[in-house]
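Long-time lurker. I teach an intro course on protein structure, and each term I like to show students one example going from raw sequence to a predicted 3D structure in token notation. This year I'd like something fresh instead of my usual example. Would anyone be willing to generate the tokens for the chain below so I can use it in lecture? Attribution to the forum is fine with me.
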Amino acid sequence: MMNNILSTKNLVEFFGTYLFLLVIIFTGDRFAIAATLGLLIHFFGSISGGNFNPAVTVMMTIAKKQPYSDLLPYVLLQLFAGYLAYITYSYYK
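-- Reply from a regular --
Happy to contribute to a lecture. Here you go:
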């Protein structure tokens, strides 16, 4: 059964991905990107697993490190977060 799309872990994965991608697209600075990812994983990894990337989500699911039921909601929310990050960047650039 698929988990609730508005569950805390799904929302954390969405907002974490959104913030991570905003830093990537706005700064392009590898140190800022690494620091952001590290902080997101540190503070939110215990809630959602801290994937923040569809490729990581797929890999973690195949490796059986997270439930298969998280795959579809995480990937959809991560892709939507990427789209929203791009829209945000386009608005402010």
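Some talking points for your students: The mean pLDDT is 95. The chain has one domain: 8-92.
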